[in-house]
Amino acid sequence: MTMNPTELKGALEAIIYAADEPATLDQIANAVSEEKPTVRAALDEMIAAYATEDRGVEIRAVAGGYKFYTKPQHHEVVRRFIKSLRPPLRLTMPALETLAVIAYRQPVTGPEIQEIRGVNVSGVIKTLLEKRLIVTAGRKAVMGRPIMYRSSKEFLMRFGLSDLEELPSLKEFEQLARAALGSDEGIAPIEPELTESMNGVDAATLETAETQAAAAPSPQDLQETPEPAEAEAEHSEPPKAESAS
Q: Residue 39: which of 63, 17, 23, 53 has the closest Cα?
């Protein structure tokens, strides 16, 4: 049975809201049993309507599909709300800097992180894994098959991000991190076992990480990277704050 325009838009809205990954045109058309040109026209109208109306979310065409996002002007209030749902988190500066390298270079191995930072990062990586800010992302197909790491859903929740596409520039990362961790109160003292030289973490080093990030897989690829059997299981998926109608 063919849907009228109002019913079709309602169905499309529900499908995009429910989808964890961008819903493709083929997937949507099959679900509503409509021709793709009809569905595409309805989606275009919905995108235009969400963009102009006084709503907190919008529909974007990304990665070959469609997904709900919070509008940029509401990111700060969304971050504050998400932060209020999580218990306080304290990180050392070495841990925060290592987290930044992983976020912008992911998936990245321990030796690669160590090369960028210029210090041993095994203890810091262990801390980030324990706090579920990063997860393992398989093994790199090189000699020794080192474990790769990527940011987790907990990382997105802590920093109030819908997905990795919303990561700010590295120059803005420290400000965002301090906001997410509760200003300087969230920056914990360096623990004895994590005492490291800070010489390898200057602005030039971080700019190098940002430049190299361009060669990394897309955020959508990262979410689909299979994890090894020994990888620590992630916690259950948190509510999608960005999808609130």
A: 23
**CATH ID of 5-70, from 3.30.70.1560, 3.90.780.10, 1.20.1250.20, 1.10.10.10:** 1.10.10.10
Residue type, 36: K
For the segment 194-226, what is each residue's pLDDT rounded down to a tens digit?
A: 333 333 344 444 444 444 444 444 444 444 444
**Cα–Cα distance between 168 and 61 in angstroms, integer?**
20
- Whether residue 244 contacts residue 56, with contact meaning beta carbons closer than 8 Å, is answered with yes
Note the helical H segments in the chain.
Answer: 5-18, 25-32, 36-52, 75-85, 93-105, 110-117, 122-130, 153-158, 170-181, 203-213, 219-223
Residue tagged 């309602």 (tokens): 10
Burial class of residue 96, CB neighbours in 10 A (0-12, 13-18, 19+): buried
Q: Cα–Cα distance between 108 and 139 in angstroms, integer?
A: 10
Instruction: Give yes or no for a cis peptide into 217 (omega within 30° of 0).
Output: no
pLDDT digits (tens, 9 = 90+) for 155-191: 887 776 767 877 877 767 766 676 666 544 444 444 4
Is the pLDDT at 30 greater than 90? The verdict is yes
199 or 240: which carries more pLDDT confidence?
A: 240
